[in-house]
Design brief:
CATH architecture of the largest domain: 3-Layer(aba) Sandwich
Radius of gyration: 23 Å
Oligomer: single chain
CATH superfamily of the largest domain: P-loop containing nucleotide triphosphate hydrolases
Structural class: alpha/beta
Distance between the termini: 34 Å
Strand order of the largest sheet: 2-3-6-1-7
Shape: globular
Number of strands: 9
Order of helices and strands: HEHEHHEHEEEHHEHEHHEHHHH
Number of helices: 14
CATH class of the largest domain: Alpha Beta
Length: 328
């Protein structure tokens, strides 16, 4: 069974919610930034539930063409279209008795949203090409890195479908809100790289670990996993210091070495604490700004009263892309 690693208060609260949600057999909506582990959490809910012995079927909604949404979800009967020489079950059939995980559910088109809503109303569906109505008891867990409430308010997502998916709600905290989990995860990923490559054991140096703790992690846990891999490959010695970390990931240049990532620790100097606080403020402000501007840098520059070029530099500094904020 997959396990979400962490010892922070934020993760302990998530674990408590997961246990409760696993025993309540209704739809779950998971929201969280890219790389926070939404599919991992969905799997935890599934494998902790009474459905654990049935399939967990993941699907990326953004990868399903509009013309194929019904066929992908509901399957088709023989002769439903050219080359349909036999019946083919859909994803909902494959997930019967188990869980259908809909990742990037906000990427569904209007047609896709209507198709999914129709199934959620009574768990009935018809394969493409007709035939008798069928029933599937698959549990739906949906995930998105957007705020669906905002998508509904902007007219990009159906309110009635949002109500159906949002029976239970879970927000995954970004890595920068997870206190001391960075050190635990960094050590775990370095050990996993060692095992995967069958190479010599390596560990983080104190200066590198301090830089990891102070970083804003725009890509969250997935980004940390990639950084651990690159740092391992760049390091010749058994200890990965700040120099090796910077060689593996230039974005850490200028990161203050802040013990345990706590900007308010009394032992920190004023300058280090101030730098850390500014970095966090800039990241939070920029993500909120780009969300409001729908990923349009020019519009964001006007809203913030900032020159477009300067805003672009700040976005690159914090590793904030614009694609995730653009309306689908």
């Amino acid at each position: 069974m997959p396990i979400m690693l962490g010892q922070s208060q934020a993760i302990q609260a998530i674990r408590a919610q997961l246990q409760r949600y696993a025993s309540c057999d209704v739809q779950v909506l998971i929201e969280g930034e890219t790389g926070t582990g939404k599919e991992l959490v969905a799997r935890e809910i599934h494998y902790a539930s009474a459905r654990r012995d049935h399939p967990f079927v993941p699907v990326n909604c953004g990868a399903i063409p509009d013309s194929l949404i019904e066929n992908e979800l509901f399957g088709h009967g023989r002769g439903a279209f050219t080359d349909a020489k036999g019946a083919q079950p859909g994803l909902i059939d494959h997930a019967r008795g188990g869980t259908l995980f809909l990742d990037e559910v906000d990427a569904l088109s209007d047609k896709g949203q209507v198709t999914l809503l129709r199934f959620l109303q009574d768990n009935e569906y018809r394969p493409v090409g007709g035939g008798a109505a069928r029933v599937s008891d698959a549990r739906i867990i949906a995930a998105t890195n957007a705020c669906l409430e905002q998508q509904v308010a902007a007219g990009r997502f159906r309110r009635d479908l949002h109500y159906r998916l949002n029976a239970l709600y879970l927000r995954l905290p970004p890595l920068r809100e997870r206190d001391d989990d960075v050190a635990l995860l960094a050590a775990h990923f370095l050990g996993a790289v060692t095992a995967r490559l069958h190479g010599p054991a390596k560990c983080w140096g104190e200066d590198a670990m301090a830089a990891l703790a102070a970083y804003a992690w725009p890509g969250n846990v997935r980004e940390l996993d990639n950084v651990a891999l690159r740092a391992y490959m760049c390091a010749d010695a058994a200890v990965i210091g700040l120099a090796e970390l910077l060689r593996a990931e230039p974005a850490f240049a200028g990161t203050e070495a802040i013990p345990n990532g706590r900007a308010n620790a009394p032992s920190l100097g004023f300058s280090a604490a101030k730098t850390h606080a500014i970095r966090k403020f800039e990241y939070d402000y920029l993500t909120d700004l780009m969300q409001q501007a729908g990923g349009n840098i020019s519009a964001a520059a006007r809203l913030s009263g900032t020159e477009r070029r300067q805003l672009g530099k700040l976005l690159r500094k914090h590793g904030i892309g614009t694609k995730q904020f653009r309306p689908h």
